[in-house]
Amino acid sequence: MKSSASEWIMPGVVGLIAAWLGQPLFAMILMAVPGLTAAAMPLAFVPALALAIAVAWFLVRRVIPSRRNGWGCIFVGAAVLAQFLGGLGSALIESSGGLGRDEGTALFFFVLIFGIPMTLIAAAFIIGGIVLLRRAK
Q: H-helix or E-strand containing 13?
């Protein structure tokens, strides 16, 4: 019989990875709030911690054990995509006055260097998770 601690290990790790990867998205949302300064950006860990707890709880309490790996892959894939979108959104919010020639070139290379690989990694995790969910009984 499995112990409760071993039941929480994989969902806890997936929750922490999803929270760590999703933190730039929460920071971007905080940057968009008027009146908040850059000193408030460390507050992005609060919703990230809530996300980690929610993902771990969902995987342990609401998902049958044979489907946990599939849902874990889907959550990590979505978090990788959220990390890229958070970084891209932060770059666009900081340049709210419009992109100059140099900033536009830098944004193009950011998308080229980070966006394409991160989107492919996210797609691989999400597709792999769907395949694992379809194979689970």
A: helix 4-32
In angstroms, rounded to a whole number, what is the distance separating the alpha carbons of residues 68 and 84? 25
Structure tokens at 111: 């998308």
Residue-wise pLDDT for 8-48, tens only, equals: 899 999 999 999 998 888 888 887 777 776 777 788 889 99
Residue with tokens 């309490």: 61
Burial label, 26 (beta-carbon count in 10 A; 0-12, 13-18, 19+):
buried
Contact 31, 90 (CB under 8 A): yes
Total-model pTM: 0.84
Cα separation, 19 vs 48, whole angstroms: 5
Rounded to whole angstroms, the Cα distance separating 60 from 7 reads: 7
**What spatial distance separates the first Cα and last Cα of the chain, rounded to whole Å?**
20
The one-letter code for the residue type at 10 is M
